[in-house]
Amino acid sequence: MKPDTICGVNAVAALFARRPDDVLRLFYLAERVDLAGPWCASLAAAHRPYRLVPPDELAKVAATPHHGGIAAVAKPRASDLFDFQAPPRLPFLLVLDGVANPHNLGAIARSAAFFGVRGLLIHEVSGAALPSDAAYRTAEGGLEYLSLWRTRDLPRALAALTPHYRTVAASLAGEAVPPAALPRDRPVALVLGAEERGVSAAVEAACRRAVRIPSTGRVHSLNIAQAAAVLLHALA
């Protein structure tokens, strides 16, 4: 697996705070010298390189002009395979079913970390977004604060979660209830689906409840990252 390139002040700060030993090298602009100083010292102690570079070189390293003046190259973040016999036990679990846009993944992770969510399970289907340079940049450090799991059989994973969680699919179906109507007698595993089609039929059938965001009806739905923020605020 190729290394990740993590850009932006908040994302790089979270990287050094959570897994400093994974940082391989650091690049930064003159305007970030003071901020980068302690990180450079850490890398120097580990005999790893860091460089002050001009803007055009940083844009090449980051593969984007939206780098925030600093970019770290790091070992790829590992995610664990979901264990059907010993599923994660957390106060709240966020589950993504086929979310394909890495910017949406990053925005969802940012909201999840903001509201104190500690775990994310990704349905590893064709086209699903996984942690990537774009996701890290959009997450503003949020991905570093989430434990990550992946599975290729989400209905089975939800069945394994059901004894420990209230499994809830975000849905526009008629039987879906507002967040306030959900019983809160156990941890929630909230499933969010892809932007275009929502939660797949098989995955929604594996959930015990469905939740919707009340609206005026003037537009059909929210962007998945916006919907995630609203539901996380209500449930997490």
What is the CATH top level name of the largest domain? Alpha Beta
Question: Can you tell me the residue ranges where pLDDT is under 50 for at least 5 consecutive residues?
Answer: none
- Annotated CATH topology of the largest domain: Alpha/beta knot
CATH architecture of the largest domain: 3-Layer(aba) Sandwich
Shape, please? elongated
> Could you report the average pLDDT, rounded to the nearest whole number?
95
- What kind of oligomer do you see? single chain
User: What's the helix-strand series?
Assistant: EHEHEHEEEHEHEHEEHEH
| Whole-number tally of structural domains | 2
**For this structure, what is the CATH homologous superfamily of the largest domain?**
SPOUT methyltransferase, trefoil knot domain
Rg value: 19 Å
Percent helix: 25-40%
Secondary-structure class: alpha/beta
Strand sequence of the main sheet, in spatial order? Answer: 5-8-7-6-10-9-11
The DSSP helix count reads: 8
What share of the residues does DSSP label as strand, in percent? 15-25%
The count of β-strands is 11
In angstroms, what separates the terminal alpha carbons?
A: 33 Å
Largest sheet: 7 strands, parallel
What does this structure look like?
There is one protein chain. This protein has 236 residues and is an alpha/beta fold. It folds into 2 domains: 4-74, Ribosomal protein L30/S12 (60s Ribosomal Protein L30, Chain: A, 2-Layer Sandwich); 80-235, Alpha/beta knot, CATH 3.40.1280. The chain contains 8 helices and 11 strands. It has helices at residues 9-18, 33-45, 55-62, 102-114, 133-139, 154-161, 201-206, 224-235; strands spanning 4-7, 23-28, 50-52, 70-74, 80-81, 92-97, 119-123, 147-151, 166-170, 188-193, 209-211. Strands 5-8-7-6-10-9-11 form a 7-stranded parallel β-sheet, sandwiched between helices. Helix 4 (102-114) links the parallel strand 6 (92-97) and strand 7.
